[in-house]
Amino acid sequence: MARPNTSPPSNSSAPVPFTAALLRLFAMRLNLFKWICSRWDRKPSSPKLELGEHGEKWAARYLRRRGYKVLVRRFRSRSGEIDLICRDGDWLVFVEVKTRVDEAFGTPSEAVDRTKQRHISKVALDYLRRLRYPEVKFRFDIVEVLMQHGARKPDDIRLIQDAFEMSEPYMY
Known about the structure:
Layout: H1 20-40, H2 47-65, E1 69-77, E2 80-88, E3 91-100, H3 114-131, E4 137-146, E5 156-164
Parallel strand pairs: 3-4
Antiparallel strand pairs: 1-2, 2-3, 4-5
């Protein structure tokens, strides 16, 4: 036979009504937790990394102005990273951003050699597998950003559409 509950009710055990205010509070704490975690494993900043980050921001802004919709920034998988994943009409576009101070050693896009293309292709396949939509049309673009260290605006931004093909036959 079950015993009756003889303890007096306390406010701490009373059910809390689920309200919009509690939901907002939970969302704020979750965002704070995500922000702290994103800073926790950040690599030490260097002028080269900062230049690359600024270049990616300007490239995303440039692509938005050209009608692209930026879906993902810095997509990471076990195969590597893609700077930007965008939509351009019916096309899913994987974008590699190359930022340089000058073109003394060639154009920024020349840094995307066969090895880099193979890495980008593998990460793109990882993304497509997660998407689970095999009929999507996709391509690889490169955005070249030329800007000086500490500059507020880039000197030049160039888009190379369909810069390279998938490095190997693919299945996802």
